[in-house]
Amino acid sequence: MASKVFETPEAAVADIPSGALLAVGGFGLCGIPDELIKAIAAGDATDFEVFSNNCGVDGHGLGILLGEKRIRRVTASYVGENKEFARQYLSGELEVELTPQGTLAEKLRAGGAGIPAFFTPAGVGTPISEGGLP
Fold first, then answer.
1. How many CA atoms does the CB half-sphere of 127 hold within 13 Å?
2. 90-94: long-range contacts (C-beta < 8 A, 24 or more apart)?
3. pLDDT at 25 exceeding the cut of 80
4. 121 lies in a domain?
5. What pLDDT, in 10s, does the model give residues 93-126?
6. Range list of β-strands (E), 1-134
7. Would you say residue 67 lies in a domain?
8. How big is the CA angle at 34 (ends 30 and 36), to the nearest 5 degrees?
9. Would residue 22 count as lying in a domain?
């Protein structure tokens, strides 16, 4: 088996292609993979679909990739204070799926375990469950 230890952040993300789905950890700007995000930004890949608590803030975290218009779709539990995120969403440039935080965690866990579907009553009967905004 190939080693999963890399000498540099750039080496760790070198095989991430355009159109990749990225699960990015952290909460706000705490615990996020800053150096890996910067290494992805230094490359050419684009058109990402991101699963994360939020999309960083302007110029930091995932906000770096967002500012470069390299994120196509975001599944997150929190919009945050990212003006570029709001601008891209409201102009139709960015697809957004708001998901309760526990449901987001379960989506990631279930996907990793090979579970194709699950049900949680969180949000049932709310405007979000009908495709609207809160």
1. 3
2. 93/69, 94/66
3. yes
4. no
5. 999 998 888 999 999 999 999 999 998 887 788 8
6. 21-24, 48-52, 71-76, 95-98
7. yes
8. 140
9. yes
What does the block give as tokens for 49?
């679909």
Please give the pLDDT value at position 134: 65
Domain count, the chain: 1
Q: Which amino acid is at 80?
A: G
* Residue-range definition of the domain harbouring residue 98: 16-113
Residue 37 in tokens: 């995000």
118 CB-near residues (< 8 Å, 6+ apart):
106, 110
Q: What is the CATH number of the domain that holds 98?
A: 3.40.1080.10
Strand partners, 22: 50
108, part of any domain: yes
Output the CA angle 3-107-39, nearest 5 degrees.
40
Q: What is the pTM of this model?
A: 0.87
128: three-class secondary structure by DSSP = helix
